[in-house]
């Protein structure tokens, strides 16, 4: 096979005035603008592009398009590039894949010599013993992995996505697809036409017939004049529920690849047909090529595919290829007509070339064997829509069966016909699509609250009155009288499939799994029907009886970058964030929040709070504004304790349990006014508690009058904690008497702070210190924080972060939901049984909590290691003596700067929960230490004197 | 009825290769009889393992495994084939550790290369809370003799250089639970291996045999079904079979099959999706899991990256797959391994998972005598197949619940004694 | 004590601003916004005149958005909003009515330009075509993965959209919108409101 | 991406909603036996057929409602039913 560049062709897509330089396999090459990588290489005389996966056989060009299993190359850091599709760019550094040490001399080609042992599934039958050696075998086998190389330093470049809501999406811009798009647009539909190739036109592009060229220019002109949005080098990768489509656009000007997500009202599937290889001895030899590839090479890129050709033709495309060859001066040594029952039996020659073709016992010298044996119908999108295509033996291919009525097929997929017939069918399909889309649009608009009011009745669902396309007879050509390769990308031959079927792997799915046929780069586009045919033959059944496999998305592979797109990862910050950043904060990610963890020395922050006063930004604390007369009922229902008699100005702690009695959340709720409360939740529970509240109100108690508004970030929440907090707060607060008598622990007031009116201030504290939690309208949060910092300079005020707060809450013995509790921790395990009021009429989880009251449950207890200098890790297990029997675990632990010793919370079996119980804690180092359960949860200030001060 | 198996070995492969001989059928194609000692519903890894161990350990060989499609057509052939034992609860660890032992000896036990690649298993922690759970798991594992430890980002980088262990990402890798005995297995080989070995001992495999009803007598429900009754047979699309024992080993249809016996289950069925990329040269030699990013990643010997995720949120029996799954997946994978953005997704698929409230299976006897379940596997089924088969077979043979599966009894949902795996199960691979 | 301090926007980063452009994004977080809850039909709903999904314009240029069934966002100058919400709670004793100042709770951005729908298409899955989202339409949806209220409020016939989100997401969302608008020549306009 | 017919907003992408699961009545907590209550918490019909289920329009109207969907085909019975019972609280 000697390929070279022809003189200018009337249909060619290359610009011979623009030369592009690139490298292939380390050598310099040239091509033209408009060339694919493969066409440029072919024009330069290259004819071996890769080595096969298993036997490392040299491989040439087969289909010269996206699906060509032999044209996967590495371009720079981009592996598995389709050289038959990717346009050549100046400076490309292209390498063959799957070759070692080189394309020309591949040592693994020796595998070919042992091919008879490497039968289907051979690896299941060996390497069993010894089991220990399998990893070694595995490493060797892994070196046979096909494909290119990833460069792990490749950045995730700019990808973004787009959502569209077209009336009609047409997948495939051949003549039928274009007509469908034009007709739909003419009927007023918003249409997107998606073409996998670099230009519209389908098979008209590489036809040298005058009529085809005229038709193509006509269609192009009509498209230009229409409102159809045309996406070339783009593929509808999948059809998902309710006509949700993935479209990958590979030629977007600013995005490397753009994923478009389309909610199409109607999808028109018009991908045309994919030419199917024929199975015979040597059918994977360089020089054996499909008729479509020959026509593309000649007509699109002006490449002469060989010198002396044999054409095996069973259809007009094959005949046209023979004519093209003849026209450009390739000697057509023989035409083997498949329609007359003739078959090509073998392609012969040295490994890297074709020398002769054998058919009907006759040997013909040739360097090119063109095969036109029929088509595979790429029904993927229809399959994804739930259709089960049916096989028609007379036409020798599958046809759509009964797709949903918002998916319409046209073009070669739907049938055969003259160009005019195909165009007419396309146009009729476009009109039908537009009519149906208008009915969908009408309904969507009528149902959508925000949409323009729609007038008139919903249009009827238009009946399908298209004149069906005919079906041209075609011989069933799958395998010749010799065996050959079926899946070129997986190196699976017809013999392998027959053997697999005989072994019992005789359904398509089993045979596929066993042999890996159709699992490669083309995902069955080329090899599925031949696979089915081989199994049918082995089972003595018809193709229709064996059926076909399910085509799964995506239609064409797309990059992870395109799928990921621009990854949106929302982050939240409080109004005080700029101050934190300016003051040496170490942040921590808590869910979506970026929070201050500490400002350099958390222990010092704790000591400052204990001696002076500290400020912490607790904005992420969940806050729900509740308004209405039924709030006490709501709180009684959601919390385990009682809420009917909470006076205005008071705050109360509550624990929420789910219906299975497991602790869900906790927090305080304050009564701000007669019918006005503010509920706080844990930071991480803010969103879920809101939904939980809404669920109860909307579905169980719709008659209750309560309005719930999330106000978490409407307020900047600042906790002022420490013995000097009252002094500090009083310096900036007006309108409230802050004396302990007037404003006691667990009370709430509305105050003006640093000139900001409408701040809620409550006396609570997670820190076991006198503290004031101030909720400031968020637009003034930073101002109040800075005012407090300024006003407290002489008091030693300083910020503290989450870590300091965690230490102090542990000193106080407060448990954290989700850390000290887990997915099975029932309410009583927290030690808060007095807050579980089983005499209420109803509350969430009440029955389980009632039953739990009689059960022996694990308990949360405060624990102190006997060696005060040892801090057991959170998760360290509590075990029975020297045994491995697990009796509990440490859930929180810290070194307490206040007490100068290690302190913990843990969950233990009930018999160990009493104060004074000695425990054995297994450190992660393996060391066992002794520890003691203390009488109450609080390690520090158990009577809460500081808190109430 | 024992047959002499056609032994698999390198020598046999060479001999047949030289002679051009073909291999005999892996399992026979037999007539469906009218009666069996036991019928196993579901020809996946669980059903086949159950049948295998019934025959091998207990001599019960008059067993039919029925499947409505082909062997391994359900979750067995759709999972991502990860095995591990680093669970959170002692009962979970003991159970899966036994499974891992059986996987370790499976190739020789079944005389088929199941390609158990003990390549280690990394579960990444992106937050303090996750790190705490990893430590918890590691500690429980160590106490049970299972090799697990928490490692830092530097060690992670050495094991999996493709991971971005810097502190730049939105979800930085703070540490990982490293479990060296974890790995991947060729799932189809496990299916075929059990089927072939069971066949050799006389068990029959019946494909395209769909169970339409379970025949019962004496129960408190209609047609003698329900509590207090006993099983008398199954009705299939190929006729009725009488049998005193029916074992429900299905996934995805567990609730529907159990309902045929009048047994209601704590199960909702959700799709679990997976995807595979085109192959590239091997660069990842371990299994990587991120719970908070809902993704797990391994690279096969063929060079493909296999990805999985958490189950889809909406309960459904439809398994068409979704675009949003691949989008989320790719985003999360690139968060972990930004260098592979040019790799291409080749194929996506999904299977059905039966989710239980405590992320643990439902195993053993039911209120209907002779009707046993091995269901509710959620996303863990493949890992548990050998031990499940072994233990359920023991339950059938002895009439007693083996200790290893006692925590997973259906009755726990009557008493509220759920299993504590929920804590660690945001994504369970 | 200082006087009542100025409103601090959640958008704290500095941007080069332009007064006009093909696509303009402006921070309007300081605009007074109230949230009103009442029955979806009744005297209060009638007075507000913006059923769920639609909006109305009232005295003093106040804009009322029917943001949810039985929920309205009222925005405009402080005085105009006061006027619009004043007395609502007393209109119908049989109805449960509440109104709260949400100015501090929500960031508000306005994006204006003929290509604004194309830009929103990149970050939000709603259908931005005229029939589905006409001038005056109100919806809630995820924008760059943040739940937002969005109202179409054209300016002199040019498509313009108000986008509200939780204040804490403000900076993130503002940057996400700038990124999405880049290919359409987005410029940041001067902040408005208050 | 499933299109869920929100009774307030109109058809919305399922990603905009939270799935609440099978709709089932909450037993009277005062009288429920452990078996009844745990049946409510854990047992599900899980049919491969029409199912009454709850949804929450998280990104849209923020309303909980009940719909009927065929779990074998994912087809919704349209128009949606008015909301009544909730699900998925365990």
What attributes characterize this protein structure?
heterotetramer, A: alpha+beta, Ubiquitin-like (UB roll), seven-stranded mixed sheet, six-stranded antiparallel beta barrel, 22 helices, elongated, D: 90 residues, Folate-binding fold, four-stranded antiparallel sheet, two-stranded antiparallel ribbon
With strands numbered from the N-terminus, the spatial order across the biggest sheet of chain D is 3-4-5-6
Ranges of chain D where pLDDT stays below 50 over 5 or more residues in a row are 81-90
Report the CATH topology name of the largest domain in chain B: FAD/NAD(P)-binding domain
Structural class by SSE content of chain B: alpha/beta
Number of strands of chain D: 6
Number of alpha- plus pi-helical segments of chain D: 1
Main β-sheet description of chain B:
8 strands, mixed
Structural class of chain D: mainly beta
Shape of chain D: globular
Give the name of the CATH superfamily of the largest domain in chain B: FAD/NAD(P)-binding domain
Question: Using CB atoms under 8 Å apart, which protein chain pair has the greatest interface?
Answer: A-B, 98 and 101 residues
- As for the number of domains of chain D, it is 1
Explain this structure:
- The complex is a heterotetramer of chains A (949), B (429), C (194) and D (90).
- Helices cover 23% and strands 26% of the residues of chain A.
- Chain A has a 7-stranded mixed sheet, with helices on both faces. A 6-stranded antiparallel beta barrel of chain A has the order 47-50-49-48-51-52.
- In chain A, strand 44 (756-762) and strand 45 (771-777) form a beta hairpin.
- Chain A is elongated.
- Chain A starts with a strand and ends with a helix.
- With 429 residues, chain B is of the alpha/beta class.
- Chain B folds into 2 domains: 30-85 and 88-97 and 100-110 and 187-267 and 358-424, FAD/NAD(P)-binding domain (3-Layer(bba) Sandwich); 117-181 and 268-355, D-Amino Acid Oxidase, Chain A, domain 2.
- Chain B contains 11 helices and 19 strands.
- In chain B, the strands form 4 sheets. Chain B has an 8-stranded mixed sheet with strand order 5-6-4-14-15-16-13-17, with helices on both faces. A 6-stranded mixed sheet of chain B has the order 8-2-1-12-19-18, with helices on both faces.
- The longest helix of chain B has 18 residues, at 381-398.
- By secondary structure, chain C is α+β, with helices and mostly antiparallel strands.
- Chain C has 2 domains: 23-30 and 105-188, Gyrase A, domain 2 (2-Layer Sandwich); 32-101, Alpha-Beta Plaits, CATH 3.30.70.
- Chain C contains 4 helices and 11 strands, in the order ββαβββαββαβββαβ.
- A 6-stranded mixed sheet of chain C has the order 8-9-10-7-1-11, covered by helices on one side. A 5-stranded antiparallel sheet of chain C has the order 3-4-5-2-6, covered by helices on one side.
- In chain C, a hairpin with a 2-residue loop joins strand 8 (138-143) and strand 9 (146-152).
- Chain A binds chain D through residues 240-242, 244, 261, 263, 444, 447-451, 658-660, 691, 694-696, 698-700, 841-842, 844, 846-848, 851, and chain D through 1-3, 5, 8-11, 18, 20, 26, 29-30, 32, 34, 37, 40-41, 54, 56, 58, 62-64, 74, 83-86, 89-90.
- Strand 32 of chain A pairs antiparallel with strand 17 of chain B, so a sheet runs across the interface.
């Amino acid at each position: 096979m000697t390929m070279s560049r022809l003189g200018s062709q009337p249909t060619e897509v290359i610009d011979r005035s623009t030369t592009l330089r690139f490298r292939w396999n380390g050598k310099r090459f040239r091509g033209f603008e408009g060339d694919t990588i493969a066409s440029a290489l072919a024009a330069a005389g290259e004819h071996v592009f890769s080595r096969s996966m298993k036997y490392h056989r040299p491989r040439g060009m087969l289909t010269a398009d996206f699906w060509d299993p032999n044209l996967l190359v590495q371009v720079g850091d981009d592996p598995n590039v389709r050289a038959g599709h990717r346009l050549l760019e100046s400076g490309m550094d292209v390498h063959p894949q799957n070759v070692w040490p080189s394309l020309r001399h591949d040592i693994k080609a020796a595998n070919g010599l042992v091919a008879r042992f490497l039968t289907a599934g051979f690896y299941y039958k060996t390497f069993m013993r010894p089991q220990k050696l399998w990893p070694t075998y595995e490493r060797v086998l892994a070196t046979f992995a096909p494909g290119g190389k990833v460069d792990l330093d490749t950045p995730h470049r700019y990808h973004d996505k787009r959502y569209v809501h077209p009336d009609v999406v047409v997948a495939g811009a051949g003549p039928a697809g274009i007509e469908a798009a034009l007709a739909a647009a003419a009927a007023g539909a918003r249409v997107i036409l998606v073409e996998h190739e670099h230009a519209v036109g389908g098979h008209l592009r590489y036809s040298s017939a005058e009529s085809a060229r005229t038709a193509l220019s006509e269609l192009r002109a009509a498209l230009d004049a229409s409102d159809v949005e045309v996406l070339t080098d783009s593929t509808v990768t999948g059809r998902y529920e309710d006509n949700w489509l993935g479209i990958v656009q590979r030629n977007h000007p600013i995005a490397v690849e753009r994923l478009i997500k389309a909610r199409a009202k109607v999808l028109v599937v018009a991908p045309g047909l994919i030419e199917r290889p024929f199975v015979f001895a040597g059918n994977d030899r360089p020089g054996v090529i499909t008729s479509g590839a020959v026509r593309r090479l000649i007509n699109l890129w002006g490449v002469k595919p060989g010198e002396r050709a044999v054409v095996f033709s069973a259809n007009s495309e094959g005949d046209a290829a023979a004519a093209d060859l003849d026209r450009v001066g390739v000697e057509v040594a023989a035409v083997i007509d498949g329609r007359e029952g003739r078959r090509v039996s073998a392609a012969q020659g040295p490994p890297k070339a074709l020398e002769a073709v054998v058919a009907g016992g006759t040997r013909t010298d040739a360097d090119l064997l063109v095969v036109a044996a029929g088509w595979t119908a790429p029904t993927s999108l229809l399959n994804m829509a739930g259709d089960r295509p049916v096989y028609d033996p007379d036409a020798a291919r599958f046809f759509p069966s009964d797709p949903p009525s918002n998916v319409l097929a046209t073009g070669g997929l739907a049938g055969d016909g003259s160009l005019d017939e195909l165009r007419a069918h396309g146009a009729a399909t476009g009109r039908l699509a537009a009519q149906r889309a208008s009915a969908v649009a009408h309904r969507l608009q009528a149902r959508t609250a925000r949409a323009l009011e729609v007038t008139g009745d919903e249009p009827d669902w238009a009946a399908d009155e298209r004149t069906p396309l005919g079906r041209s007879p075609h011989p069933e050509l799958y395998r010749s009288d010799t065996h050959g390769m079926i899946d070129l990308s997986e190196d699976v031959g017809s013999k392998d499939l027959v053997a697999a079927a005989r072994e019992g792997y005789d359904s398509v799915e089993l045979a596929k799994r066993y042999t890996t046929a159709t699992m490669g780069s083309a995902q069955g586009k080329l090899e599925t029907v031949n696979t089915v045919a081989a199994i049918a033959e082995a089972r003595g059944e018809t193709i229709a009886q064996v059926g076909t496999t399910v085509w799964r998305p995506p239609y064409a592979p797309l990059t992870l970058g395109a799928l990921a797109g621009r990854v949106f990862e929302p982050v939240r910050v409080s109004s005080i964030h700029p101050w934190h950043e300016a003051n040496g904060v170490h942040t921590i990610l808590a869910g979506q929040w970026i929070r201050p963890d500490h400002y350099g020395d958390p222990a010092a922050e704790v000591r400052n709070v204990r001696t002076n006063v500290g400020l912490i930004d607790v904005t992420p604390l969940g806050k729900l504004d509740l308004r209405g007369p039924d709030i006490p009922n709501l709180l009684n229902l959601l919390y385990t304790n009682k809420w009917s008699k909470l006076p205005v100005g008071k705050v109360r702690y509550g624990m929420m349990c789910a219906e299975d009695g497991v602790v869900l959340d906790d927090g305080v709720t304050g009564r701000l006014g007669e019918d006005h409360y503010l509920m706080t939740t844990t930071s991480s529970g803010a969103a879920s508690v809101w939904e939980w509240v809404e669920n109860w109100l909307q579905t169980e108690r719709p008659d209750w009058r309560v309005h719930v508004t999330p106000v978490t970030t409407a307020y900047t929440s600042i906790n002022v904690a420490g013995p000097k907090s009252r002094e500090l707060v009083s310096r900036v607060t007006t309108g409230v008497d802050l004396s302990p008598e007037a404003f006691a622990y667990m009370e709430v007031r509305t105050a003006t702070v640093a000139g900001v009116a409408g701040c809620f201030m409550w006396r609570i504290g997670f820190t076991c210190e006198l503290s004031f939690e101030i909720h400031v309208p968020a637009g003034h949060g930073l101002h109040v924080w800075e005012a407090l910092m300024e006003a407290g300079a002489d008091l030693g005020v300083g910020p503290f972060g989450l870590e300091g707060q965690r230490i102090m809450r542990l000193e106080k013995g407060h448990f954290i939901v989700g850390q000290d509790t887990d997915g099975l921790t029932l309410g009583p395990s927290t030690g808060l049984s007095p807050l579980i009021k089983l005499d209420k009429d109803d509350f969430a989880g009440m029955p389980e909590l009632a039953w739990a009251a009689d059960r022996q449950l694990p308990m949360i207890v405060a624990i102190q290691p006997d060696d005060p200098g040892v801090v057991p890790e959170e998760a360290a297990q509590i075990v029975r003596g020297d045994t491995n029997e697990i009796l509990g675990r440490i859930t929180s632990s810290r070194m307490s700067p206040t007490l100068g010793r290690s302190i913990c919370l843990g969950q233990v079996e009930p018999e160990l929960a009493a104060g004074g119980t000695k425990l054995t804690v297994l450190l992660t180092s393996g060391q066992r230490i002794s520890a003691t359960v203390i009488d109450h949860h609080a390690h520090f200030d158990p009577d809460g004197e500081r808190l109430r001060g | 009825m024992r047959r002499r198996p056609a032994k698999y070995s390198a020598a046999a492969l060479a001999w047949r290769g030289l002679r051009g001989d073909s291999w005999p059928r892996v399992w026979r194609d037999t007539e469906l009889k009218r009666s069996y000692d036991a019928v196993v519903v579901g020809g996946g890894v669980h059903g086949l393992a159950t049948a295998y161990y019934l025959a091998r350990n207990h001599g019960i060989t008059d067993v039919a495994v029925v499947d409505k499609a082909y062997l391994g057509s359900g979750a067995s052939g759709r999972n991502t084939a990860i095995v591990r034992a680093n669970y959170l609860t002692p009962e979970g660890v003991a159970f899966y550790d036994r499974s891992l032992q059986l996987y370790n000896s499976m190739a020789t036990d079944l005389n088929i290369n199941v390609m158990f690649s003990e390549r280690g298993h990394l579960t990444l922690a992106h937050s303090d809370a996750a790190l705490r759970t990893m430590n918890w798991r590691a500690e429980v594992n160590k106490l049970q003799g299972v090799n697990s430890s928490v490692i830092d980002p530097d060690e992670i980088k050495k094991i999996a250089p493709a991971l971005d262990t810097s502190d730049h990402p939105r979800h930085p890798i703070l540490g990982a639970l490293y479990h060296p005995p974890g790995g991947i297995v060729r799932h189809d080989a496990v299916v075929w291996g059990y089927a072939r070995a069971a066949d050799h001992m006389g068990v029959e495999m019946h494909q395209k045999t769909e169970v339409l009803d379970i025949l019962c007598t004496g129960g408190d429900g209609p047609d003698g079904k329900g509590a207090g009754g006993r099983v008398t047979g199954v009705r299939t699309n190929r006729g009725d079979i009488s049998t005193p024992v029916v074992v429900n080993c299905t996934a995805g249809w567990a609730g529907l099959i159990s309902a045929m016996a009048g047994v209601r289950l704590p199960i909702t069925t959700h799709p679990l999706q997976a995807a595979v990329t085109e192959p590239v040269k091997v660069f990842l030699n371990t299994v990587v899991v991120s719970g908070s990013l809902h993704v797990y990643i391994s690279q096969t010997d063929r060079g493909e990256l296999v990805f999985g995720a958490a189950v889809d949120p909406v309960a459904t029996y439809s398994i068409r797959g979704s675009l949003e799954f691949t989008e989320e997946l790719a985003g999360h994978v690139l968060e972990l391994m930004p260098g592979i953005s040019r790799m291409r997704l080749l194929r996506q698929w999904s299977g059905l998972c039966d989710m239980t409230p405590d992320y643990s299976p439902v195993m053993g006897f039911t209120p209907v005598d002779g009707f046993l379940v091995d269901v509710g596997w959620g996303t863990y089924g493949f890992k548990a197949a050998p031990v499940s088969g072994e233990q359920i077979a023991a339950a059938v043979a002895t009439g007693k619940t083996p200790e290893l599966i006692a925590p997973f009894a259906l009755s726990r949902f009557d008493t509220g004694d759920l299993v504590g795996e929920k804590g660690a199960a945001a994504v369970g691979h | 004590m200082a006087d009542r301090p100025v409103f601090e926007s959640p958008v704290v980063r500095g941007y080069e601003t332009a007064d006009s452009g093909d696509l303009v994004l402006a921070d309007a977080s300081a605009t007074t916004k109230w949230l009103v809850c009442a029955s979806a039909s009744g005297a209060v709903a009638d007075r507000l005149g913006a059923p769920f999904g639609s909006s109305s314009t009232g005295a003093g240029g106040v804009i009322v958005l029917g943001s949810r069934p039985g929920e309205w966002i009222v925005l405009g100058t402080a005085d105009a909003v006061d006027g619009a919400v004043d007395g609502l709670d007393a209109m119908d004793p049989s109805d449960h009515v509440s109104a709260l100042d949400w100015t501090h709770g929500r960031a508000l951005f306005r994006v204006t330009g003929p290509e604004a729908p194309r830009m929103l298409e990149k970050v939000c899955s709603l259908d931005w075509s005229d029939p589905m989202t006409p001038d005056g339409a109100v919806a809630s949806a995820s924008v760059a993965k943040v739940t937002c209220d969005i109202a179409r409020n054209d300016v002199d016939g040019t498509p313009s959209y108000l986008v509200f989100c939780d204040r804490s997401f403000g900076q993130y969302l503002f940057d996400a919108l700038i990124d999405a608008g880049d290919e359409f020549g987005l410029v940041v306009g001067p902040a408005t409101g208050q | 991406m499933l299109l869920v017919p929100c009774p307030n907003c109109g058809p919305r992408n399922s990603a905009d909603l939270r799935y609440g699961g099978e709709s089932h009545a909450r037993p009277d907590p005062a009288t429920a036996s452990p078996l009844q209550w745990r049946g409510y918490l854990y047992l599900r019909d899980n049919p491969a057929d029409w199912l009454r289920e709850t949804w929450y329009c998280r990104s849209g109207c923020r309303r909980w409602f009940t719909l009927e969907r065929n779990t074998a085909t994912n087809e919704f019975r349209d128009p949606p039913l008015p909301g009544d019972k909730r699900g998925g609280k365990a």
